[in-house]
Structure formats: structure tokens, C-alpha cells
Amino acid sequence: MRLILLGPPGAGKGTQAQRLVEKHGIPQLSTGDMLRAAVSAGTDVGKRAKAVMDAGELVSDEIVNAIVAERIDQADCAAGFILDGYPRTLAQADAVSAMLEERGLKLDATIELVVDDAALVGRIVKRAEDAIAAGQTPRKDDNPEVFEERLREYYKKTAALIGYYHAKDLLRRVDGMMTIDQVTAEIEAILASIK
Ligand code: AMP
């Protein structure tokens, strides 16, 4: 099963992706996590991405497309994967379509988590507080100022993917304002219906 989780920052994509990993045994491919790992490791990609990420802007299509193309060829992706936070631009959406086609694979669905913008900044602030409470360092971009830029980027560049996948009849929408368990149940119902 190959899925895309779509939605603005704070919509719950990461949380739902982790639940899908547990239930379906396929990996979560979060480009945000991969880029943060590259930043921590101080790789070339990390060095190029760091300032852009700290500002809440999008890293170049070229960088993220290359990371994903390499990742989906790894053995643990053979039975499928969940793309979380990728694609985020139309060029990335075209790139993932081409990657799948080249490998003779198909996308099963894109699930959009639909949320109220007003709730998002509160979720991000809470995520940072929870990280601190757990003794972790919160993400540098999880603060209200950078969050505004991340949300702007979403509307400028990513929201167009809703129409892109709708036109391909691959878009499924879930109310992301429900409880985490309710959202999970709805996603599972969608997956059962497309099997
Ligand atoms: P996320 O963890 O998905 O919120 O991503 C954190 C940051 O990583 C974003 O604000 C971007 O700077 C960068 N990033 C993650 N995924 C992508 C992507 N698909 N395209 C461009 N930039 C990305």
C-alpha cells in the first residue's frame, strides 16, 4: 500500500502515519524527519537545508525528490510506504508520479486531513511544550512566528495538490478536527474500502 498524507503543518499527519506504521507494517517516509536527520548529521544536504527549514520555507524540490527516490528503493519499502509531508509542491507531485511509474508501482490514495487553521498554531505550541516536558529539545520551527510562514508556504505551494489528486480520483478527505482515534478509524475505513 502506498499512501500520501496531505494537510497543513500540525494537521496530525505524523501522528496518523505512526499509527499506520504499527497497523500495516510499512514505513513512514517523512521528508521533514529525513531533512532534520541530515541537519543533525551535518551532511551537505543538511547544510543546504538548515536555514530554509529554520525560516519555515520549503527546501528545494531537487533535494527532497532525490532523498525520496533513494529511500523508496530500500528493502523496507517493498510492500509500500506512507509519505508524510511529501509531496509539497506540484513539481514534487509530478516527481513522485514519475518515480512510481518508473518502478511499475501505483499510489493507492492521498488522504487529506482537513483542519481549521485557527486550531493549528495551538497544536504546534503544544507539540513544543510536550517535547520540553519529555526532556527533548523542541523543533526550532515549532513556534508561532515560524509557523505562520510554514502555513503560508502550505497555501502558496502545497494546497494545489488537493486539486491535483482529486483530478486523478485519488483524494480522500478526513475531518482532522476529530479525536486522534476517530481520525485513525476513518482512515482505516478508507483503506478498507480501497483494498
Ligand atoms: P515537516 O516536519 O514535514 O513539518 O517539515 C519541516 C520542514 O522541512 C519544512 O518546513 C520544510 O522546510 C522542510 N520540508 C519537509 N518536507 C519537505 C518537502 N516535501 N518539500 C520541501 N521542504 C520540505
UniProtKB/TrEMBL annotation:
Kindly list the positions annotated as binding AMP. T31, R36, E57, L58, V59, G85, Y86, P87, R88, Q92, R139, R150
Q: Tell me one GO molecular function of this protein.
A: AMP kinase activity
Known EC number: 2.7.4.3
* InterPro entries per UniProt: Adenyl_kin_sub, Adenylat/UMP-CMP_kin, Adenylat_kinase_CS, P-loop_NTPase
Question: Sorted alphabetically, which keywords does the UniProt record give?
Answer: ATP-binding, Cytoplasm, Kinase, Nucleotide biosynthesis, Nucleotide-binding, Transferase
Q: In which pathway does it act?
A: Purine metabolism; AMP biosynthesis via salvage pathway; AMP from ADP: step 1/1
Q: What class of enzyme is it?
A: transferase
- Main localization of the protein described in the UniProt heading: cytoplasm
Presence of keyword Transferase: yes
Q: Which residues form a coiled coil?
A: none
- In this chain, ATP is annotated as bound at G10, A11, G12, K13, G14, T15, R127, M178
Could you state one GO cellular component term attached to this entry? cytoplasm
Catalyzed reaction equations: AMP + ATP = 2 ADP
Where do the segments described as NMP lie? 30-59
- What is the annotated role of this protein in its UniProt record? Catalyzes the reversible transfer of the terminal phosphate group between ATP and AMP. Plays an important role in cellular energy homeostasis and in adenine nucleotide metabolism.
Q: Summarize subunit and interaction data from the UniProt record for this chain.
A: Monomer.
Q: Which family does it belong to?
A: Belongs to the adenylate kinase family.
Give the protein name, as stated in the record.
Adenylate kinase
**Which organism does this record belong to?**
Nitratireductor indicus C115
